[in-house]
Amino acid sequence: MKFLLDEDIGKLVTEFLRKKGHDVKSAIEDLRGFPDKEILQIACKEERILITLDQDFGRMIYQTHSPHRGVILLRLKKESQEAIIKVLENAFNQLKEEDLKGKFSVITEEKIRIR
User: Are 32 and 11 in contact, with CB atoms under 8 Å apart?
Assistant: First the structure.
C-alpha cells in the first residue's frame, strides 16, 4: 500500500511500514511544516492513504469535502510509536487495501470504523 504519514507519526512507524513492503512517504522527512491542507492534497495527488493522529483531517473531509484517497485517523489512549505500530499491524492483518482506499477510517485499540 502507499501511505503518507503525517508529522505526528514517528520514524519508527515509517521504518516498520517500509519493512513490511509498503511505499511510505513521511511528512517528517519530506514535508515538515506543511499545512494540513497541503498534506492532504499531496496524499491525494500521489494516491496515498494518509495516516494521522490529527482530527483536523476529519473536519476537512466532512465539513469542507476535501478530496482524498483514504485517511486513517488513529484515536489511541497512548500515542507512542509502539502503540501505533501495534494498532496498525492488527488493522492490516484484518483489512485489505480495497477496504481503506478512498475511505475515512478511524482506528482505536478496540475497533476499526470505516466510512
Answer: no
In tens, the pLDDT along 80-113 reads 999 999 999 999 999 988 999 999 999 999 999 9
DSSP state at residue 101: T
Q: With contact defined as beta carbons under 8 Å apart, do 41 and 55 qualify?
A: no
Domains of the chain: 2-114 (3.40.50)
3-state secondary structure of 93: helix
d(CA 68, CA 108): 21
Rg (the chain; Cα; Å): 13
Nearest to residue 111, comparing CAs of 74, 69, 81, 61? 74
* pTM of the complete model: 0.94
